[in-house]
Amino acid sequence: MSTSNRNAVTPGYRVDIALRSTVAIAGGYFLALAAGRLAALALPLTPVDAVLAAAMLAFAVYAWLALWAFRCRSATKLCIVTAVLYGLCLALARVAEGILQ
User: Fold this and answer.
1) What H or E segment, with its residue span, contains residue 52?
2) pTM of the model
3) What number of CA atoms fall less than 13 Å from residue 46's CA on the CB side?
4) Phi–psi pair at 5, nearest 5 degrees
């Protein structure tokens, strides 16, 4: 009987899964929030319709990031792309607020 460590889970693997889970949950929440805010400001609809459409978009963004978090090859790339998209959405939302005022 052979005792093989072929399927042993390493600490690095556990850290990678924990990081991806954190980015999927927290990063997805904040990215969905920023994308929803940007969409609510930018969509040329009545305010009620814009908010409803933005909320639906936010669910799609959250689901996309949650799936992509475990599809992406590198956790570093995942963190960088999530941070850049979040910053871009916030910056564009600030510009949209300035234009609307």
Assistant:
1) helix 47-71
2) 0.85
3) 2
4) -100, 25
Res 1: pLDDT: 53
Rounded Cα gap, residues 37 and 39, in angstroms: 5
CB neighbours of residue 58 within 10 Å: 22
Burial of 5 from C-beta contacts in 10 A (0-12 / 13-18 / 19+): exposed
15 Cβ contact partners less than 8 Å away, ≥ 6 residues apart: none
Q: Does residue 8 carry a pLDDT above 80?
A: no
**Which of 59, 54, 29, 28 lies closest to 41 in space, CA to CA?**
54
Over range 30-47, report the average pLDDT: 95
DSSP result, 6-25: TTPPPHHHHHHHHHHHHIII
Which amino acid belongs to residue 96? A
Tokens of 14: 């556990």
User: Two tokens at 59?
Assistant: 């669910």
Residue 15 confidence (pLDDT) above 60? yes
